[in-house]
């Protein structure tokens, strides 16, 4: 890369650290660190939710699928999320917000101890944290792949550089730093994506390339589904992403919790949903056009990086690279904050009695230490990502398949329709989904559709079925569900100066 590119990337890293240090002044309590004190405006919560939902995997693994299979990757990879978050804006966003405002919950799993019991809470906490180690490791490996193609930086050093910068600002500034850097990263990534789109359209003959390119691509590239990414996969992905992006990925639940009220939480979710449906089309168009511009490349996963280094002048290459960094760092920093919340609020008090009586300063110190340990561990695993199935293998076959069994009790446990499903249903559905995955993937070497769909469908059937066949309804369960189902707030209105106030 040119010196101008390195200056651009370095400036981006410095900006992220400065934001983290500035956010430090806004973090005085554990609530500030994990839920921004419930003071995050809806537009920031929405953009942060969106930016925290995908990473450099988009520019590596998903770009590879776009190169070989076409638009199918948008439908199961992005549109499914947009639909799922839209559903969540109606079903889950307000409930997460009430958990914070009414019950004082700071961790997405904190309410499970009362809703079910401590063993259920611990089972979901440990299994979810373990899964997230591998999920984030895949993200580090993806961004290291990009850095390797762009600048020849060895994979290990790429992981260390991006991981260390992320670790500084998310450890110092907590959720405020995550959200504010998410916004800055969104702006940088937007500029980079528009630059890349403009250059690709120029190569295709102008703006008309937006509609003429499709006639030049192989016909199979225009199909929303393929023999591998079938209609069943698409439908299952909508179900998986509805659970995953509305709280199954714990960091995204925090965005709903951080909003000032339920009205703002729903608005933020709707903004994120719209961004997922529209904005990926801008970023992915160059990926769809790549077979025409750089045909017959040996590794499709490198397609986006090759186009960037081939077509863009010095300086703009660094801008695009910073935009790619932004996705991974946004997701990983928010994941680290959520995992830290779970470790500090849910796991440590069970393992160590002293943690139950932490002061605010001790709680903050524990949160920051657990963040450091978690991120360092993911970086170590990232160096072995290729041996674990590569980026797409981890993200699709591991995370997408195993997220369902963890998400089902967590999300459905908040809904009145499932108040009869207690701890027995939660633990059995969790274990049953994991066993179903092991049988499908390792026992029968099943297809992608079967591997992804079996765990979540088994978990759903067990959780719902046991609730009706062996109900465990309790007064504490009814109290929690009724509290988060009922909105005591009056719908806000706009004042003359444009601010949101109670009606």
Overall description:
There is one protein chain. The chain is mostly helical and 503 residues long. It has one domain (3-390): Sodium/glucose cotransporter (Up-down Bundle), CATH 1.20.1730.10. It is 75% helix and 1% strand. The chain has a two-stranded antiparallel sheet with strand order 1-2. Strand 1 and strand 2 (500-501) form a beta hairpin. Helix 5 runs antiparallel to helix 13, helix 6 packs across helix 20 (475-485) and helix 9 packs across helix 13. It is globular and about 65 Å long. Keywords: Cell membrane, Ion transport, Membrane, Sodium, Sodium transport, Transmembrane, Transmembrane helix, Transport. Belongs to the sodium:solute symporter (SSF) (TC 2.A.21) family.
Q: List low-confidence stretches.
A: 495-499
Q: Kindly report the average pLDDT value.
A: 80
The total of helices stands at 20
Helix/strand-derived category reads mainly alpha
Count up the domains. 1
The profile of the biggest β sheet is: 2 strands, antiparallel
H/E series, N to C?
Answer: HHHHHHHHHHHHHHHHHHHHEE
How many β-strand stretches?
A: 2
Q: CATH topology, what is it called?
A: Sodium/glucose cotransporter
Strand content range: under 5%
Overall helicity: over 70%
Instruction: Give the N-terminus to C-terminus distance in angstroms.
Output: 56 Å
In CATH, the architecture is: Up-down Bundle
The CATH class is Mainly Alpha
The general outline is globular
Rounded to an integer, what's the Rg over CA atoms? 22 Å
Task: Identify the strand order in the major beta sheet.
Answer: 1-2
